[in-house]
């Protein structure tokens, strides 16, 4: 048995590591324009995010499997150590290419941290209190979402962009010390069977090609381009290859038989669709608020903050009552909240006020908090305790996958409308006295339309055209979010009643 003092120390160290990973994903945003101006390599700008994201997604299931075979303390410290080392390298970067390399390494460490935090919290918590302990992790995301952008802006303004990475060093060392001194393994690990390297390679490549296609599709290359179609083809071909490898592996990296288990299948399905919904809102609702409702960036930030706050408070509140409510009931309520909140967005118009936006997004956030916590516990309960690492990491991975697919698909919906407006600009450029330079600037960076200085350079008729395109594009995103929320609720209804 672990003493209360030791358990508190481990929880604190694990949550500090989670805070580092969550903060790092948000704090970089405020510094990127400064970084790009100093290091150059503007064409590689997006890969500072993408490299981190892809590496994290690939490493999640791998660390989950390793946590079922090897001591959690060693793996956790390896992930934290890698995160600290990569933070040092990122802060010392002199070129954009080296920064991207450091961010990729940082993503691997972050994936390990995200997987192991929830595995360790689940391991050390009493079964009856597991939901309450895990729900505390959601509060970390809320704190990071509030502190991240403002802290990034402060550091860039008064120190140097390099300190957004170097700040991880003292905090990471503190977390490393807590894990080293207090964490003990309480779950028996699998022994004997060789590590499924072939399965790991196939799974990693499949994830990498699929997510890369959704990250760059519709942005760098069109969806019908040979590059994107090739990525989808490779990912599709790897599915039967992965199945073949896993059916013959002595200890598969991710057993395909797990998908025959109702709780594993429906729990991960529910979090996939809920993530599709909420991350699509995170990505594209700001375009509507700023481009159609004409709100300031600060007002946009306040409205979007409600998603994070709702998610955190929903999960924290559910953690206190889950043992009385039951996991399936909680998931169903979360699915209903997602539908109610996202359905509200379908009634947005240019006259919609900020309070309406805040309220609708807050309800969606609460629904996400209910779905993520309850389905994580269902997925964990669906597998043998010896597979807790795989169960936990699979849930994290499907959450990541759902968000990526949602943002990619919804990005295509918005881009189609904006490209239509751009075509109109090409046709009417002469009649509205629009310079070729301005047209070329918008064609390379449509997001520039949302900058006030850009809008003042456009004729009023063109501003109306673009605002109408943004409105139609984002409203189609809202419709897709509602559809995803309905599918999420369907998955929640199919959760096994025994999970209660």
Primary descriptors:
Growth Hormone, Chain: A, 500 residues, mainly alpha
Task: Give a description of the structure.
This protein is 78% helix and 0% strand. The protein has 3 domains: 1-193, Up-down Bundle (Growth Hormone, Chain: A); 197-249, no CATH class; 257-500, MFS general substrate transporter like domains (Growth Hormone, Chain: A, Up-down Bundle), CATH 1.20.1250. The chain has helices at residues 4-39, 47-67, 72-91, 96-124, 130-158, 163-166, 168-182, 197-216, 226-248, 262-291, 297-325, 327-345, 354-382, 388-428, 436-444, 452-455, 460-493. It has 17 helices and no strands. The protein has 500 residues and is mainly α. The relative contact order is 0.12. The chain is globular. The two termini are 26 Å apart.
Tell me the name of the CATH homologous superfamily of the largest domain. MFS general substrate transporter like domains
Radius of gyration: 23 Å
General shape: globular
Q: Given the helix and strand composition, which structural class is it?
A: mainly alpha
Percent in strands: under 5%
CATH architecture grouping of the largest domain:
Up-down Bundle
CATH class of the largest domain: Mainly Alpha
Helical coverage, percent range: over 70%
> In terms of quaternary structure, what is this?
single chain
Our count of helices gives 17
> Topology as H/E string?
HHHHHHHHHHHHHHHHH
Q: Quick one: how many beta strands?
A: 0
Uncertain segments of ≥5 residues (pLDDT<50)?
none
Q: Summarize model confidence as the mean pLDDT.
A: 83
